[in-house]
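This entry is listed as follows:

___
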Amino acid sequence: MNTGTLKSEGRKEKIEVRKVKGRTLRDVTIKIGLERIDMQEGITVEALLDSRTTRLVMSLEFARKQGFKLKKLERPMNVRNVDGSLNKKRPIEHMVEENIYYYGHRERMKIDMIGGQK
């Protein structure tokens, strides 16, 4: 895997280039702030800028370790793969609502929890 750093207006983004099934993929990560709204405490994390999903997602395990307040969805949401097939993992059952900060910009976002949902 090749990695590099892209500097833009004094910001640093990390670019990783990897091969998957003969295709070259470029992953761009940025540092953002996440604020737990209920506690008004924040952390800085490295976020994947384009994960090729249509929604914001976060690891359920990470959210639990960081103490984010999980909200159970009224109806679980099935996840589809890029090819349209149903994902074999469990459906999305939880989400969090948090403030996201990036270079002076703040936005409240709903983030779906993925992976290992029990």
